[in-house]
């Protein structure tokens, strides 16, 4: 559910946009019955941005954002996948 894979659209981790997830992978997962959610973390892609060096957030906000998305979609349980910052967020959700 977080940023990115090694697709031709860029690397993963902090700063990666939702479009970094390979469309073919998303189609395979959706074809197997999974509801795939891709979103931009704060300060990336189409999300809210902040002045350089002045983020209006903390690391814990990334996990809270993921929970907020799941709650807004009425999803109680999820398989969460992430790379780099997305992986750290997934681990925080597992706690």
List the helices and strands and how they pair.
Blueprint lengths: L22 H9 L27 H14 L12 H10 L1
Helix pairs in contact: 2-3
Supply database-style keywords.
disordered N terminus; mainly alpha; 95 residues
Question: If helices are DSSP runs of H or I spanning 4 or more residues, what is the number of helices?
Answer: 3
Shape: globular
User: Main β-sheet, in a few words?
Assistant: none
Number of DSSP E strands: 0
Low-confidence stretches: 2-10
Strand content bin: under 5%
The average pLDDT value, as a whole number, equals: 83
Give an account of the 3D structure.
With 95 residues, the chain is mainly alpha-helical. Helices cover 35% and strands 0% of the residues. The protein contains 3 helices and no strands. α2 crosses α3. The radius of gyration is 13 Å and the shape is globular. 17% of the residues are buried. The N terminus is likely disordered.
The gist of it:
This protein is mainly α and 95 residues long. The protein is built from three helices and no strands. The model is unreliable at 2-10 (pLDDT under 50).
């Amino acid at each position: 559910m977080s940023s990115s894979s090694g697709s031709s659209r860029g690397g993963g981790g902090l700063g990666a946009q939702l479009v970094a997830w390979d469309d073919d992978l998303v189609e395979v997962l959706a074809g197997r019955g999974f509801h795939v959610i891709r979103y931009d973390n704060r300060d990336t892609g189409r999300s809210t941005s902040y002045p350089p060096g002045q983020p209006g957030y903390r690391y814990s906000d990334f996990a809270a954002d993921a929970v907020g998305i799941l709650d807004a979609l009425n999803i109680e349980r999820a398989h969460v996948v992430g790379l780099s910052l997305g992986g750290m967020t997934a681990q925080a959700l597992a706690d």
